[in-house]
Structures
1.
Amino acid sequence: MPDYGHDLTFGTFITPTNAAPATVVDLAKATEAAGLDLATFQDHPYQAGFLDTWTLLSYVAAQTERVSLSANVINLPLRPPAMLARAAASLDLLSGGRFELGLGAGAFWDAIGAMGGPRRTPGESITALSEGIDIIRGLWDTSTRERLVVDGEFYRVDGAKRGPAPAHDIQIWLGAYKPRMLRLIGRKADGWLPSLGYVKDLNDLTTSNATIDEAALAAGRTPGDVRRLLNIGGTFSAQRGDALLSGPPEQWAEQLADLTLEYGFSTYILSGDDARSMMILGQEVAPAVRELVRAERGADRTDPTSAVGR
Protein backbone atom coordinates (compact mmCIF):
# COMPACT_ATOMS: atom_id res chain seq x y z
CA MET A 1 0.00 0.00 0.00
CA PRO A 2 1.16 3.55 -0.61
CA ASP A 3 2.19 6.04 2.02
CA TYR A 4 -0.78 8.34 2.62
CA GLY A 5 1.54 11.21 3.48
CA HIS A 6 0.26 12.04 6.95
CA ASP A 7 2.54 13.57 9.56
CA LEU A 8 3.91 10.98 11.98
CA THR A 9 2.68 10.91 15.57
CA PHE A 10 3.47 8.62 18.48
CA GLY A 11 1.65 7.85 21.69
CA THR A 12 0.91 5.46 24.52
CA PHE A 13 -1.84 3.00 25.44
CA ILE A 14 -2.12 3.11 29.24
CA THR A 15 -4.07 0.60 31.33
CA PRO A 16 -6.50 2.56 33.56
CA THR A 17 -6.13 0.31 36.59
CA ASN A 18 -7.79 1.66 39.73
CA ALA A 19 -5.41 -0.16 42.07
CA ALA A 20 -2.80 2.58 41.57
CA PRO A 21 -4.53 5.65 40.11
CA ALA A 22 -1.56 7.94 40.71
CA THR A 23 0.62 5.61 38.62
CA VAL A 24 -1.83 5.84 35.72
CA VAL A 25 -1.68 9.62 35.81
CA ASP A 26 2.11 9.54 36.14
CA LEU A 27 2.33 7.42 32.98
CA ALA A 28 0.30 10.04 31.11
CA LYS A 29 2.70 12.69 32.40
CA ALA A 30 5.61 10.47 31.33
CA THR A 31 4.07 10.33 27.85
CA GLU A 32 4.24 14.10 27.66
CA ALA A 33 7.75 14.25 29.18
CA ALA A 34 8.99 11.76 26.57
CA GLY A 35 7.95 14.14 23.81
CA LEU A 36 5.18 11.87 22.59
CA ASP A 37 2.02 13.24 21.01
CA LEU A 38 -0.85 11.19 22.41
CA ALA A 39 -1.93 9.37 25.57
CA THR A 40 -4.79 6.89 25.26
CA PHE A 41 -6.75 4.66 27.66
CA GLN A 42 -8.97 1.66 27.05
CA ASP A 43 -12.65 2.05 27.91
CA HIS A 44 -14.37 -0.94 29.52
CA PRO A 45 -17.00 0.56 31.86
CA TYR A 46 -18.04 -2.90 33.07
CA GLN A 47 -14.49 -3.63 34.29
CA ALA A 48 -14.53 -3.05 38.04
CA GLY A 49 -10.75 -3.01 38.18
CA PHE A 50 -10.50 0.06 35.94
CA LEU A 51 -10.97 3.74 36.52
CA ASP A 52 -13.81 5.28 34.55
CA THR A 53 -12.14 6.32 31.34
CA TRP A 54 -14.04 9.57 30.83
CA THR A 55 -13.29 10.77 34.34
CA LEU A 56 -9.65 9.79 33.85
CA LEU A 57 -9.37 11.66 30.55
CA SER A 58 -10.74 14.80 32.17
CA TYR A 59 -8.36 14.53 35.12
CA VAL A 60 -5.32 13.87 32.92
CA ALA A 61 -6.22 16.82 30.69
CA ALA A 62 -5.95 19.04 33.75
CA GLN A 63 -2.61 17.48 34.73
CA THR A 64 -0.91 17.90 31.33
CA GLU A 65 -0.25 20.79 28.98
CA ARG A 66 0.64 19.57 25.51
CA VAL A 67 -0.17 15.91 24.91
CA SER A 68 -3.39 14.98 23.08
CA LEU A 69 -5.80 12.53 24.70
CA SER A 70 -8.20 9.84 23.52
CA ALA A 71 -9.97 6.71 24.61
CA ASN A 72 -8.77 3.60 22.83
CA VAL A 73 -11.68 3.15 22.21
CA ILE A 74 -14.90 4.54 23.77
CA ASN A 75 -17.57 1.90 24.40
CA LEU A 76 -20.49 3.45 22.54
CA PRO A 77 -23.22 1.08 23.82
CA LEU A 78 -22.66 2.37 27.36
CA ARG A 79 -22.11 6.03 26.44
CA PRO A 80 -25.07 7.52 24.53
CA PRO A 81 -23.87 9.49 21.49
CA ALA A 82 -25.69 12.77 22.20
CA MET A 83 -24.18 13.02 25.68
CA LEU A 84 -20.84 11.80 24.34
CA ALA A 85 -20.83 14.57 21.74
CA ARG A 86 -21.34 17.27 24.38
CA ALA A 87 -18.78 15.69 26.72
CA ALA A 88 -16.18 15.41 23.96
CA ALA A 89 -16.66 19.00 22.81
CA SER A 90 -16.51 20.22 26.42
CA LEU A 91 -13.28 18.36 27.13
CA ASP A 92 -11.77 19.65 23.90
CA LEU A 93 -12.65 23.22 24.89
CA LEU A 94 -11.32 22.80 28.42
CA SER A 95 -8.06 21.20 27.23
CA GLY A 96 -7.35 23.71 24.48
CA GLY A 97 -8.10 21.38 21.58
CA ARG A 98 -6.30 18.27 22.82
CA PHE A 99 -9.02 15.64 22.57
CA GLU A 100 -9.66 13.06 19.84
CA LEU A 101 -12.52 10.55 19.82
CA GLY A 102 -11.67 6.88 19.46
CA LEU A 103 -14.93 4.94 19.12
CA GLY A 104 -15.87 1.28 19.24
CA ALA A 105 -19.08 -0.52 18.30
CA GLY A 106 -18.94 -2.61 21.47
CA ALA A 107 -18.01 -6.16 22.44
CA PHE A 108 -18.36 -8.36 25.54
CA TRP A 109 -22.13 -8.11 25.32
CA ASP A 110 -22.79 -10.10 28.49
CA ALA A 111 -20.80 -7.52 30.48
CA ILE A 112 -22.50 -4.64 28.67
CA GLY A 113 -25.90 -6.18 29.41
CA ALA A 114 -24.97 -6.60 33.07
CA MET A 115 -24.41 -2.84 33.21
CA GLY A 116 -27.86 -2.18 31.78
CA GLY A 117 -26.68 -1.69 28.22
CA PRO A 118 -28.12 -3.21 25.05
CA ARG A 119 -27.21 -6.55 23.55
CA ARG A 120 -26.59 -6.23 19.80
CA THR A 121 -25.61 -8.49 16.95
CA PRO A 122 -22.49 -7.53 14.99
CA GLY A 123 -24.61 -6.03 12.23
CA GLU A 124 -26.76 -4.10 14.69
CA SER A 125 -23.71 -2.71 16.48
CA ILE A 126 -22.30 -1.34 13.23
CA THR A 127 -25.60 0.28 12.30
CA ALA A 128 -25.78 1.81 15.78
CA LEU A 129 -22.22 3.10 15.46
CA SER A 130 -23.01 4.74 12.14
CA GLU A 131 -26.06 6.44 13.66
CA GLY A 132 -24.00 7.51 16.65
CA ILE A 133 -21.41 9.17 14.41
CA ASP A 134 -24.18 11.10 12.65
CA ILE A 135 -25.50 12.38 15.98
CA ILE A 136 -22.06 13.30 17.29
CA ARG A 137 -21.05 15.19 14.17
CA GLY A 138 -24.47 16.82 13.96
CA LEU A 139 -24.29 18.18 17.49
CA TRP A 140 -20.77 19.50 16.88
CA ASP A 141 -21.96 21.38 13.77
CA THR A 142 -22.95 24.86 14.90
CA SER A 143 -22.82 26.33 11.41
CA THR A 144 -26.62 26.04 11.36
CA ARG A 145 -29.25 26.90 13.96
CA GLU A 146 -31.51 24.15 12.68
CA ARG A 147 -32.15 21.63 15.43
CA LEU A 148 -30.78 18.17 14.89
CA VAL A 149 -33.06 15.29 13.98
CA VAL A 150 -31.70 11.76 13.53
CA ASP A 151 -34.33 9.04 13.37
CA GLY A 152 -32.19 5.94 13.61
CA GLU A 153 -32.99 2.36 14.42
CA PHE A 154 -30.94 2.45 17.63
CA TYR A 155 -30.28 6.12 18.35
CA ARG A 156 -32.63 9.05 17.91
CA VAL A 157 -32.54 12.75 18.59
CA ASP A 158 -35.63 14.82 17.87
CA GLY A 159 -34.88 18.53 17.64
CA ALA A 160 -31.74 18.61 19.79
CA LYS A 161 -29.98 21.96 20.04
CA ARG A 162 -26.53 21.90 18.48
CA GLY A 163 -23.32 22.68 20.30
CA PRO A 164 -21.01 23.30 21.82
CA ALA A 165 -18.59 23.24 18.92
CA PRO A 166 -15.23 21.74 19.92
CA ALA A 167 -12.07 23.84 19.99
CA HIS A 168 -10.74 22.02 16.93
CA ASP A 169 -12.04 19.48 14.42
CA ILE A 170 -12.09 16.40 16.64
CA GLN A 171 -11.02 13.30 14.76
CA ILE A 172 -13.20 10.19 15.02
CA TRP A 173 -11.11 7.01 14.96
CA LEU A 174 -12.71 3.57 14.80
CA GLY A 175 -11.26 0.31 16.03
CA ALA A 176 -12.17 -2.30 13.40
CA TYR A 177 -11.11 -5.43 11.56
CA LYS A 178 -14.07 -6.80 9.59
CA PRO A 179 -15.11 -5.57 6.12
CA ARG A 180 -18.39 -3.91 7.07
CA MET A 181 -16.72 -1.85 9.79
CA LEU A 182 -13.86 -0.99 7.46
CA ARG A 183 -16.34 0.30 4.90
CA LEU A 184 -17.93 2.46 7.59
CA ILE A 185 -14.50 3.92 8.30
CA GLY A 186 -14.07 4.78 4.65
CA ARG A 187 -17.46 6.50 4.54
CA LYS A 188 -17.55 8.38 7.84
CA ALA A 189 -14.44 8.16 10.03
CA ASP A 190 -11.19 10.11 10.23
CA GLY A 191 -9.03 7.22 11.33
CA TRP A 192 -8.63 3.45 11.46
CA LEU A 193 -7.24 2.13 14.77
CA PRO A 194 -6.46 -1.60 14.86
CA SER A 195 -4.04 -3.39 17.19
CA LEU A 196 -1.01 -5.08 15.68
CA GLY A 197 -1.42 -8.00 18.06
CA TYR A 198 -4.71 -8.91 16.41
CA VAL A 199 -3.28 -8.82 12.88
CA LYS A 200 -2.44 -12.35 11.76
CA ASP A 201 -0.51 -11.35 8.65
CA LEU A 202 0.73 -7.97 7.42
CA ASN A 203 -0.94 -8.75 4.10
CA ASP A 204 -4.24 -8.38 5.97
CA LEU A 205 -3.36 -4.70 6.44
CA THR A 206 -3.10 -4.30 2.67
CA THR A 207 -6.52 -5.88 2.19
CA SER A 208 -8.09 -3.76 4.92
CA ASN A 209 -6.58 -0.57 3.54
CA ALA A 210 -8.00 -1.37 0.13
CA THR A 211 -11.47 -1.88 1.62
CA ILE A 212 -11.28 1.49 3.41
CA ASP A 213 -9.96 3.24 0.31
CA GLU A 214 -12.69 1.87 -1.94
CA ALA A 215 -15.40 2.91 0.51
CA ALA A 216 -13.88 6.39 0.87
CA LEU A 217 -13.81 6.90 -2.89
CA ALA A 218 -17.39 5.62 -3.26
CA ALA A 219 -18.46 8.20 -0.63
CA GLY A 220 -16.78 11.05 -2.50
CA ARG A 221 -13.79 11.17 -0.17
CA THR A 222 -10.12 10.38 -0.73
CA PRO A 223 -8.14 7.55 0.91
CA GLY A 224 -5.95 10.19 2.53
CA ASP A 225 -8.96 11.47 4.48
CA VAL A 226 -8.49 8.46 6.78
CA ARG A 227 -5.46 8.38 9.06
CA ARG A 228 -4.11 4.92 9.85
CA LEU A 229 -3.22 4.44 13.53
CA LEU A 230 -1.77 1.28 15.06
CA ASN A 231 -1.62 -0.01 18.62
CA ILE A 232 1.76 -1.68 19.01
CA GLY A 233 3.68 -3.64 21.61
CA GLY A 234 7.17 -5.05 21.79
CA THR A 235 10.44 -5.13 23.68
CA PHE A 236 13.59 -3.06 23.50
CA SER A 237 16.85 -4.99 23.66
CA ALA A 238 20.48 -4.58 22.66
CA GLN A 239 20.45 -7.39 20.10
CA ARG A 240 18.61 -7.38 16.82
CA GLY A 241 16.02 -10.10 16.44
CA ASP A 242 13.82 -11.57 13.73
CA ALA A 243 10.52 -10.64 15.38
CA LEU A 244 8.67 -7.43 14.68
CA LEU A 245 9.39 -4.74 17.29
CA SER A 246 11.83 -6.81 19.30
CA GLY A 247 15.30 -5.33 19.30
CA PRO A 248 17.22 -2.06 19.59
CA PRO A 249 15.62 1.33 18.89
CA GLU A 250 17.14 1.54 15.41
CA GLN A 251 15.46 -1.73 14.44
CA TRP A 252 12.15 -0.45 15.75
CA ALA A 253 12.61 2.72 13.69
CA GLU A 254 13.30 0.76 10.50
CA GLN A 255 10.28 -1.48 11.00
CA LEU A 256 7.89 1.37 11.86
CA ALA A 257 9.13 3.34 8.85
CA ASP A 258 8.33 0.30 6.69
CA LEU A 259 4.83 0.15 8.18
CA THR A 260 4.39 3.80 7.20
CA LEU A 261 5.81 3.56 3.69
CA GLU A 262 4.36 0.16 2.76
CA TYR A 263 1.11 0.02 4.74
CA GLY A 264 0.22 3.67 5.28
CA PHE A 265 0.31 3.89 9.08
CA SER A 266 1.25 7.23 10.56
CA THR A 267 0.39 7.01 14.27
CA TYR A 268 1.94 4.41 16.56
CA ILE A 269 0.55 3.87 20.07
CA LEU A 270 2.69 1.85 22.47
CA SER A 271 1.21 -0.44 25.11
CA GLY A 272 3.04 -1.86 28.12
CA ASP A 273 2.76 0.78 30.86
CA ASP A 274 6.55 1.18 31.02
CA ALA A 275 7.93 4.71 31.43
CA ARG A 276 11.38 3.71 30.18
CA SER A 277 9.96 2.31 26.93
CA MET A 278 7.91 5.48 26.51
CA MET A 279 11.09 7.55 26.78
CA ILE A 280 12.93 5.39 24.25
CA LEU A 281 10.00 5.65 21.85
CA GLY A 282 9.80 9.41 22.18
CA GLN A 283 13.49 10.30 22.31
CA GLU A 284 15.08 7.66 20.06
CA VAL A 285 12.58 5.80 17.92
CA ALA A 286 10.19 8.58 16.89
CA PRO A 287 12.88 10.99 15.60
CA ALA A 288 14.54 8.16 13.67
CA VAL A 289 11.27 7.06 12.08
CA ARG A 290 10.49 10.63 11.05
CA GLU A 291 13.93 10.98 9.48
CA LEU A 292 13.68 7.69 7.56
CA VAL A 293 10.21 8.54 6.26
CA ARG A 294 11.20 12.12 5.44
CA ALA A 295 14.15 10.87 3.40
CA GLU A 296 12.03 8.37 1.49
CA ARG A 297 9.28 10.88 0.82
CA GLY A 298 11.86 13.35 -0.43
CA ALA A 299 13.33 10.73 -2.75
CA ASP A 300 9.88 9.95 -4.12
CA ARG A 301 9.27 13.62 -4.92
CA THR A 302 12.57 14.06 -6.75
CA ASP A 303 13.11 10.68 -8.43
CA PRO A 304 11.44 10.79 -11.89
CA THR A 305 11.19 6.98 -11.89
CA SER A 306 9.28 6.79 -8.62
CA ALA A 307 5.57 6.10 -8.42
CA VAL A 308 4.95 9.59 -7.09
CA GLY A 309 7.06 11.23 -9.74
CA ARG A 310 5.39 9.51 -12.66
2.
Amino acid sequence: MKAPRDVPTPLLESLKSLGLTKYEALVYIGLLRTAGATATEVHEISGVPRASVYPVLDRLVQKELVSVSHTTPKRFAAIPPDQGVENLMRRIESDAQSARTALDALYREKGPESRGDQELIWTIYGEENIKTRLAEMFKSAERSVELLATGDLLQRSVLSLLDPVPGSVPVEIVTDHWTGEQPSRFRLHLLPLAALCETPFLAKKLLPYERSGVFLVDDTRALLWMEGAEGQPSALYSESAGLVLFVRRHITTVMEWAKAAVQ
Protein backbone atom coordinates (compact mmCIF):
# COMPACT_ATOMS: atom_id res chain seq x y z
CA MET A 1 0.00 0.00 0.00
CA LYS A 2 1.11 3.56 -0.71
CA ALA A 3 2.15 5.73 2.22
CA PRO A 4 0.11 8.86 2.97
CA ARG A 5 0.81 11.68 0.53
CA ASP A 6 0.39 15.37 1.07
CA VAL A 7 -2.96 16.76 -0.05
CA PRO A 8 -3.03 20.33 -1.45
CA THR A 9 -4.69 22.70 1.02
CA PRO A 10 -6.96 24.29 -1.66
CA LEU A 11 -8.34 20.82 -2.48
CA LEU A 12 -9.06 20.13 1.20
CA GLU A 13 -10.80 23.48 1.55
CA SER A 14 -12.90 22.83 -1.56
CA LEU A 15 -14.06 19.49 -0.17
CA LYS A 16 -14.82 21.10 3.19
CA SER A 17 -17.01 23.64 1.39
CA LEU A 18 -18.94 20.67 0.00
CA GLY A 19 -19.68 19.42 3.51
CA LEU A 20 -16.77 17.04 4.20
CA THR A 21 -14.66 17.07 7.33
CA LYS A 22 -10.87 17.03 7.05
CA TYR A 23 -10.72 13.29 7.83
CA GLU A 24 -13.50 12.52 5.32
CA ALA A 25 -11.65 14.46 2.63
CA LEU A 26 -8.36 12.67 3.38
CA VAL A 27 -9.97 9.23 3.27
CA TYR A 28 -11.84 9.96 0.02
CA ILE A 29 -8.70 11.29 -1.65
CA GLY A 30 -6.71 8.31 -0.36
CA LEU A 31 -9.22 5.87 -1.82
CA LEU A 32 -9.17 7.66 -5.17
CA ARG A 33 -5.47 6.81 -5.34
CA THR A 34 -6.02 3.08 -5.00
CA ALA A 35 -8.29 0.40 -6.45
CA GLY A 36 -9.79 -0.45 -3.07
CA ALA A 37 -8.66 -0.89 0.53
CA THR A 38 -9.50 -2.42 3.88
CA ALA A 39 -10.03 -0.17 6.89
CA THR A 40 -6.45 -0.84 8.02
CA GLU A 41 -5.15 0.08 4.60
CA VAL A 42 -7.30 3.22 4.56
CA HIS A 43 -5.56 4.28 7.78
CA GLU A 44 -2.20 3.74 6.12
CA ILE A 45 -2.90 5.58 2.87
CA SER A 46 -4.81 8.50 4.35
CA GLY A 47 -2.99 9.16 7.62
CA VAL A 48 -6.32 9.30 9.46
CA PRO A 49 -6.06 7.83 13.00
CA ARG A 50 -7.02 4.16 13.11
CA ALA A 51 -9.83 4.74 15.64
CA SER A 52 -11.45 7.30 13.36
CA VAL A 53 -11.33 5.31 10.13
CA TYR A 54 -14.55 3.24 10.52
CA PRO A 55 -16.76 6.20 11.58
CA VAL A 56 -15.36 8.24 8.69
CA LEU A 57 -15.97 5.43 6.20
CA ASP A 58 -19.55 5.01 7.45
CA ARG A 59 -20.23 8.69 6.86
CA LEU A 60 -18.68 8.58 3.40
CA VAL A 61 -20.88 5.62 2.50
CA GLN A 62 -23.93 7.60 3.66
CA LYS A 63 -22.79 10.56 1.55
CA GLU A 64 -22.49 8.26 -1.48
CA LEU A 65 -18.78 8.88 -1.90
CA VAL A 66 -17.59 5.39 -0.99
CA SER A 67 -18.86 1.89 -1.81
CA VAL A 68 -18.26 -1.13 0.42
CA SER A 69 -17.90 -4.80 -0.49
CA HIS A 70 -19.69 -7.69 1.22
CA THR A 71 -16.46 -9.61 1.69
CA THR A 72 -14.48 -10.36 4.82
CA PRO A 73 -12.66 -8.20 5.54
CA LYS A 74 -14.68 -5.40 4.00
CA ARG A 75 -13.04 -3.43 1.25
CA PHE A 76 -13.84 0.18 0.42
CA ALA A 77 -13.61 1.97 -2.92
CA ALA A 78 -14.12 5.62 -3.91
CA ILE A 79 -17.03 6.63 -6.12
CA PRO A 80 -15.58 8.38 -9.25
CA PRO A 81 -15.22 12.16 -8.73
CA ASP A 82 -17.86 13.23 -11.27
CA GLN A 83 -20.54 11.12 -9.61
CA GLY A 84 -19.24 11.77 -6.12
CA VAL A 85 -19.37 15.56 -6.43
CA GLU A 86 -22.81 15.31 -8.06
CA ASN A 87 -24.00 13.27 -5.06
CA LEU A 88 -22.64 15.89 -2.68
CA MET A 89 -24.30 18.74 -4.59
CA ARG A 90 -27.62 16.91 -4.56
CA ARG A 91 -27.41 16.52 -0.78
CA ILE A 92 -26.50 20.19 -0.36
CA GLU A 93 -29.44 21.31 -2.50
CA SER A 94 -31.81 19.03 -0.59
CA ASP A 95 -30.53 20.29 2.77
CA ALA A 96 -30.75 23.90 1.60
CA GLN A 97 -34.35 23.45 0.47
CA SER A 98 -35.28 21.85 3.79
CA ALA A 99 -33.60 24.67 5.69
CA ARG A 100 -35.31 27.31 3.53
CA THR A 101 -38.72 25.75 4.12
CA ALA A 102 -38.20 25.49 7.87
CA LEU A 103 -36.80 29.03 8.19
CA ASP A 104 -39.60 30.48 6.07
CA ALA A 105 -42.17 28.79 8.32
CA LEU A 106 -40.50 30.32 11.38
CA TYR A 107 -40.41 33.73 9.73
CA ARG A 108 -44.07 33.63 8.76
CA GLU A 109 -45.11 32.63 12.30
CA LYS A 110 -44.29 36.15 13.43
CA GLY A 111 -47.18 38.57 13.38
CA PRO A 112 -46.80 42.05 11.89
CA GLU A 113 -46.50 43.53 15.38
CA SER A 114 -43.38 41.49 16.11
CA ARG A 115 -41.54 42.24 12.89
CA GLY A 116 -39.12 45.01 13.72
CA ASP A 117 -38.11 45.41 10.09
CA GLN A 118 -41.61 46.51 9.14
CA GLU A 119 -40.66 50.14 9.76
CA LEU A 120 -37.35 49.96 7.92
CA ILE A 121 -36.53 51.04 4.39
CA TRP A 122 -33.96 48.77 2.78
CA THR A 123 -31.56 49.77 0.00
CA ILE A 124 -30.89 47.06 -2.60
CA TYR A 125 -27.96 47.34 -4.99
CA GLY A 126 -27.52 45.61 -8.35
CA GLU A 127 -30.09 44.66 -10.99
CA GLU A 128 -30.09 40.93 -10.21
CA ASN A 129 -30.71 41.57 -6.49
CA ILE A 130 -33.54 43.99 -7.28
CA LYS A 131 -35.11 41.53 -9.72
CA THR A 132 -34.89 38.77 -7.13
CA ARG A 133 -36.80 40.89 -4.61
CA LEU A 134 -39.39 41.89 -7.23
CA ALA A 135 -39.85 38.27 -8.27
CA GLU A 136 -40.51 37.32 -4.63
CA MET A 137 -43.04 40.15 -4.32
CA PHE A 138 -44.89 39.19 -7.49
CA LYS A 139 -44.89 35.46 -6.78
CA SER A 140 -46.44 35.94 -3.33
CA ALA A 141 -49.08 38.45 -4.48
CA GLU A 142 -52.56 37.65 -3.20
CA ARG A 143 -54.72 40.70 -3.98
CA SER A 144 -53.09 43.16 -6.35
CA VAL A 145 -49.96 44.12 -8.29
CA GLU A 146 -49.54 47.72 -9.43
CA LEU A 147 -46.55 49.29 -11.13
CA LEU A 148 -45.49 52.50 -12.75
CA ALA A 149 -42.36 51.99 -14.83
CA THR A 150 -40.55 53.41 -17.82
CA GLY A 151 -41.06 51.33 -20.93
CA ASP A 152 -37.40 50.36 -21.20
CA LEU A 153 -37.23 49.04 -17.65
CA LEU A 154 -40.60 47.32 -17.94
CA GLN A 155 -39.96 45.41 -21.14
CA ARG A 156 -36.28 44.60 -20.63
CA SER A 157 -36.16 43.71 -16.94
CA VAL A 158 -39.58 43.43 -15.29
CA LEU A 159 -42.14 41.93 -17.65
CA SER A 160 -40.86 38.35 -17.42
CA LEU A 161 -40.92 38.55 -13.61
CA LEU A 162 -44.70 38.93 -13.72
CA ASP A 163 -45.28 35.45 -15.13
CA PRO A 164 -45.68 33.75 -11.69
CA VAL A 165 -48.37 36.22 -10.54
CA PRO A 166 -51.49 34.12 -9.81
CA GLY A 167 -54.13 34.45 -12.50
CA SER A 168 -56.70 35.66 -9.97
CA VAL A 169 -54.56 38.67 -9.03
CA PRO A 170 -55.15 41.80 -11.16
CA VAL A 171 -52.04 43.50 -12.54
CA GLU A 172 -52.21 47.24 -13.35
CA ILE A 173 -49.35 48.76 -15.36
CA VAL A 174 -48.74 52.39 -16.26
CA THR A 175 -45.79 53.15 -18.54
CA ASP A 176 -44.61 55.96 -20.81
CA HIS A 177 -44.29 53.82 -23.95
CA TRP A 178 -44.70 50.30 -25.23
CA THR A 179 -43.12 48.51 -28.18
CA GLY A 180 -44.87 45.62 -29.88
CA GLU A 181 -48.07 43.79 -29.01
CA GLN A 182 -49.64 44.70 -25.70
CA PRO A 183 -50.15 41.76 -23.29
CA SER A 184 -53.77 40.83 -22.69
CA ARG A 185 -52.96 39.37 -19.26
CA PHE A 186 -52.42 42.85 -17.78
CA ARG A 187 -54.23 46.19 -17.77
CA LEU A 188 -51.80 48.51 -19.57
CA HIS A 189 -52.05 52.31 -19.56
CA LEU A 190 -49.76 54.75 -21.44
CA LEU A 191 -48.87 58.15 -19.94
CA PRO A 192 -46.00 60.62 -20.44
CA LEU A 193 -42.99 60.00 -18.17
CA ALA A 194 -43.58 63.20 -16.20
CA ALA A 195 -47.03 61.97 -15.22
CA LEU A 196 -45.49 58.86 -13.68
CA CYS A 197 -43.54 61.08 -11.27
CA GLU A 198 -46.36 63.30 -10.05
CA THR A 199 -44.92 63.97 -6.56
CA PRO A 200 -41.77 66.14 -6.11
CA PHE A 201 -39.97 63.29 -4.32
CA LEU A 202 -40.52 60.84 -7.15
CA ALA A 203 -39.80 63.45 -9.79
CA LYS A 204 -36.42 64.07 -8.17
CA LYS A 205 -35.69 60.35 -7.79
CA LEU A 206 -37.02 58.98 -11.06
CA LEU A 207 -37.25 61.60 -13.78
CA PRO A 208 -33.48 61.88 -14.47
CA TYR A 209 -33.30 58.20 -15.38
CA GLU A 210 -34.54 56.26 -18.37
CA ARG A 211 -34.94 53.10 -16.29
CA SER A 212 -36.99 53.61 -13.14
CA GLY A 213 -40.21 52.41 -11.58
CA VAL A 214 -42.53 52.17 -8.59
CA PHE A 215 -44.01 48.81 -7.56
CA LEU A 216 -46.72 48.00 -5.02
CA VAL A 217 -47.99 44.52 -4.08
CA ASP A 218 -51.08 43.87 -1.95
CA ASP A 219 -50.85 47.40 -0.51
CA THR A 220 -48.26 46.02 1.91
CA ARG A 221 -44.92 45.98 0.05
CA ALA A 222 -43.39 48.78 -1.98
CA LEU A 223 -40.24 49.05 -4.10
CA LEU A 224 -38.76 52.07 -5.91
CA TRP A 225 -36.27 51.20 -8.67
CA MET A 226 -33.76 53.89 -9.64
CA GLU A 227 -30.96 53.80 -12.20
CA GLY A 228 -27.72 55.22 -10.81
CA ALA A 229 -25.71 57.93 -12.52
CA GLU A 230 -23.15 55.34 -13.64
CA GLY A 231 -25.77 52.90 -14.84
CA GLN A 232 -25.77 50.85 -11.62
CA PRO A 233 -29.37 50.40 -10.43
CA SER A 234 -30.46 50.57 -6.83
CA ALA A 235 -33.84 50.31 -5.13
CA LEU A 236 -35.64 51.22 -1.95
CA TYR A 237 -37.80 48.44 -0.50
CA SER A 238 -40.08 48.60 2.51
CA GLU A 239 -43.09 47.11 4.20
CA SER A 240 -43.43 50.15 6.46
CA ALA A 241 -46.88 51.69 6.64
CA GLY A 242 -45.50 55.15 5.93
CA LEU A 243 -43.77 54.39 2.62
CA VAL A 244 -46.50 52.01 1.48
CA LEU A 245 -49.13 54.72 2.09
CA PHE A 246 -47.04 57.27 0.21
CA VAL A 247 -46.66 54.94 -2.77
CA ARG A 248 -50.35 54.00 -2.55
CA ARG A 249 -51.44 57.63 -2.83
CA HIS A 250 -49.09 58.30 -5.73
CA ILE A 251 -50.20 55.23 -7.68
CA THR A 252 -53.86 56.06 -7.07
CA THR A 253 -53.36 59.56 -8.49
CA VAL A 254 -51.51 58.32 -11.58
CA MET A 255 -54.01 55.51 -12.16
CA GLU A 256 -56.85 58.03 -12.08
CA TRP A 257 -55.07 60.13 -14.69
CA ALA A 258 -54.46 57.06 -16.83
CA LYS A 259 -58.10 55.99 -16.73
CA ALA A 260 -59.29 59.52 -17.42
CA ALA A 261 -56.99 59.77 -20.42
CA VAL A 262 -58.83 56.98 -22.23
CA GLN A 263 -62.30 58.35 -21.57
